[in-house]
Design brief:
Blueprint lengths: L2 H20 L54 H13 L6 H7 L10 H10 L4 E4 L4 H9 L4 E5 L1 H6 L11 E8 L3 E5 L11 E4 H10 L11 E4 L5 E5 L4 E3 L8 E4 L5 E4 L1 E3 L2 E5 L2 E4 L3 E3 L1
Antiparallel strand pairs: 1-6, 2-3, 3-4, 4-5, 7-10, 7-14, 8-9, 11-12, 12-13
Helix pairs in contact: 2-3, 2-4, 3-4
Amino acid sequence: MTEPERTALEHIRRVAESVIQTGNWTSPPSQPPVQPPTQPPTPPVAPPPAASGDIALLNVPYVSQFGAGADQYTHDSAAAAGAMLVRAYTPQTPTPDEFFSKSGQSSDQPLSLRQVSAALVRYGISAQQRSRMRLLDLTASLASGRPLLLPLKHAVLQAAGLTSETTAAPHYVVAVGLDMANIYIHDPLRRDGSGRGLAVPILVLYQAWTEIARETSSYERSALIPRSPLRRFVSANTVINIRSGPGTNHNVVGQTKTGEIFETSKILGDWGQIGDGRWLALRYTRDI
């Protein structure tokens, strides 16, 4: 807020207080307006510091489309992105090549979102396909703990100086977080892992997300969104055993208190991870 705006707001507040004190709700008060104080005005509040880069990303493992397990196909960014979601939602650890084989396609061509969705189902993951989304929809999905598999025009990222790799095919990434300036993605088109949690300015991502429709008309701001969240905020309904892994076959390492609240960083079936080697059964909790 600028100093003139702050001064105007203060004047409005004082006039409103004067109206309330005199009980006159239909016209300005008859007495002279209250004069501003003689002391120097309060300096404007400094804006909060910019994000430090310590952003809490959704717990989605990064998978590259290069290297061992990703050498059978060239157009395998969708398979790498799909493998990331499988690793996030299940104990399975497929490679891009293995995920690609689940799609039912054998030729080295980019997978469609429908093929990726079908492969996810084979790994036990249900995802919704959406099109013509808004930035608000994307941010709402991330805020609700759901990563998004997005097709982008990679050349837009390259033109923005975010990558030196090149591909003309529809390129798939996984959106895993956001702040006031950026959407954070796992970009599989990296040989050194630097695509993990890549910060992309919001409008740059929107442009890349929109322009892919010029090449694939059905992909205008499209996404695959898992139906289950990875992150939930829950409260314990009762005393719950905390176990070292997601199941009753794992050792008890502690207990909750009734009403204690937790943030889950990963969800496998009915179990939520609340820390390193700490899991609880979500059926004994409620969302808050």
